[in-house]
Amino acid sequence: MALAARVLVSYGNRGIVETSDGKRMVCSYRRSVGRPYCGDRVAVEMTGDDQVLLVGIEPRDNEFARANARFQKQVIAANLDQVLVVIAPEPLPSTDLVERYLVAIHSLGISPVIVLNKSELVAQRSTATDNPLSHLDEYRELGYPVLATSCKGEPGTKTLWPVLTEKTSILVGQSGVGKSSLINQIIPDLDLQTGELSRVTGKGTHTTTTTIMYALPCAGRLIDSPGVWEYGLWRMEPRELEDGFIDFHPFDGQCKFNDCRHAGEPGCAILTAVEQGQIKRWRYQSYLRLLEQNR
Ligand SMILES: Nc1nc2c(ncn2[C@@H]2O[C@H](COP(=O)(O)OP(=O)(O)OP(=O)(O)O)[C@@H](O)[C@H]2O)c(=O)[nH]1
Ligand SMILES: [Mg+2]
Ligand SMILES: [Zn+2]
């Protein structure tokens, strides 16, 4: 008889699943069923005391992905309610990193949350105006929640609780911004949970190499993912790219040409909006760079 389960970790040809009664078991895959992702809802069959075999993967609500060097999609986790983009004053976000994440998240039809970790360092830094952290208020104006956290001082991580409750969330961001440190602070029984999970992932090192789903005390789930140096987008239609810029939405369909890419075409409503200050120029310039890189 098949049991319903959720995939917590997927690693090579096996993973750890949690069945609906809360038991964690090692799950083997077979080629005919395929490999599930972290977050997948699956059906399994018991093969031993704490051993199961994967017999089916449920259709996914969504898949969060990034691109490899050849611009192909690589799925990181499935069935998410929200994505938390973690940035920090150290390492500073690279150019367009946040915009790339926002495009990817909008393409899933789910909501982004921007998390400024190591926020206790912000006051100590000189305030250079041309760095991405200077745009946080503008992200708020666009409607994105921006939450400050610190694993080394005030305000701690309590700012995250209201958004995490009862949801499946993933932490993404550059390597070293503190995703795993946030997990450490937020999951009270982390040692217990990782003890069970490390049967598959091996002993944890500093840098996260595997995507892992943890259970939150507040009935939600939180996923830690390996950091990236540069988050790349897969090859996509200009339309999908544009959808990720919510400040462009009010001007939808107002360009002279139906297939306007907003890259200097005559009668472009987006360019007019930029000139009239309705769209921030730095956002438009970021769009143009992503459009150029997407060819
Ligand atoms: N000052 C300060 N340091 C922090 C904070 N959070 C994490 N760190 C430090 O930042 C470093 C990297 O933290 P990790 O949690 O391993 O970062 P990560 O995002 O999980 O990195 P990857 O797994 O490589 O993606 C560690 O030395 C942490 O101690 C913070 O709020 N303030
Ligand atoms: Mg990590
Ligand atoms: Zn246009």
Walk me through this protein's architecture.
By secondary structure, the chain is an alpha/beta fold. The chain folds into three domains: 55 residues, OB fold (Dihydrolipoamide Acetyltransferase, E2P), CATH 2.40.50; 162 residues, Rossmann fold (3-Layer(aba) Sandwich); 56 residues, Probable gtpase engc, domain 3 (Ribonucleotide Reductase Protein R1, domain 1, Orthogonal Bundle), CATH 1.10.40.50. Helices cover 23% and strands 25% of the residues. It is built from eight helices and 13 strands. The strands form three sheets. The protein has a six-stranded mixed beta sheet with strand order 10-9-8-11-13-12. A five-stranded mixed β-barrel has the order 1-2-3-5-4. A hairpin with a 4-residue loop joins strand 2 and strand 3. The model has no long low-confidence stretch (mean pLDDT 92). The site of magnesium ion has 5 residues, from helix 4.
What's the assembly state of these chains?
Answer: single chain
Biggest sheet, in brief?
Answer: 6 strands, mixed
> What fold name goes in the CATH topology slot of the largest domain?
Rossmann fold
Mean pLDDT reading: 92
Instruction: Assign the CATH architecture of the largest domain.
Output: 3-Layer(aba) Sandwich
Radius of gyration: 21 Å
- Counting DSSP H or I runs of 4 or more residues, the number of helices is 8
Q: Catalogue the ligands.
A: guanosine-5'-triphosphate, magnesium ion, zinc ion
Summarize the structure.
The chain is of the alpha/beta class.
